[in-house]
Amino acid sequence: MGMNICVYCASSAQVDRVYFDATERLAKLFVAAGVSIVFGGGGIGLMGKLADTVLADGGHIKGIMPKFMNEVEWAHKQVADFEFTDTMHEREARFLADIDGLVTLPGGSGTLEELLEAITLKRLGQFTKPIIILNTNGFHDPLKQRLDRCITEKFTHEKDRQMWTFVDEPEAVLAGIQNADD
Questions:
Q1: Are 8 and 38 contacting, i.e. CB atoms less than 8 angstroms apart?
Q2: 65-102: per-residue pLDDT in tens?
Q3: What are phi and psi of 148, to 5 degrees?
Q4: Is residue 96 a contact partner of residue 6, using CB atoms and an 8 Å limit?
Q5: How many structural domains does the chain have?
Q6: How does DSSP assign the chain, residue by residue?
Q7: The domain that contains 168 carries what CATH number?
């Protein structure tokens, strides 16, 4: 398939097993499809599971992380392809460069901030690739409700609903990318 996909996800190792399982399934599907992955570079949580699975299955994964995070040893130790930035802002810009799509898994404030920035950039025409939100275990239901409310209350346009796609299972992610309205 030859695509480069950025994956936003949690660094917390305390989350429910269902999120780790979904991350592993997605990683295996990406490797089988020949997808190269860009991610935040972390060695624990869903980031760690993503990298561990991709590496174990012989796939390619690239970490992008600010230097200060590497200095406190947050970087995944087995990921060979790494880019270190000076700031978080540079990191986020690099996440969206040279990719064919963006997938957001469950995560905390960093994951949500990155996703909302990508949606904003897409709204402004600065990012044009598909945005897929993997709604494992209904995690992103409140976000979907919030985005819908932004539309229904006219804070954003109805057409903006086409900027993102929610899917419930990892197996629907690749089709979501391929079928997305850019």
A1: no
A2: 998 887 666 788 889 899 999 999 999 999 999 999 99
A3: -60, -40
A4: yes
A5: 1
A6: ---EEEEE----S-S-HHHHHHHHHHHHHHHHTT-EEEE--BSSHHHHHHHHHHHHTT--EEEEEEHHHHHTT-B-TT--EEEEESSHHHHHHHHTTT-SEEEE-S--HHHHHHHHHHHHHHHTTS--S-EEEE-GGGTTHHHHHHHHHHHHTTSS-GGGGGG-EEESSGGGHHHHHHH---
A7: 3.40.50.450
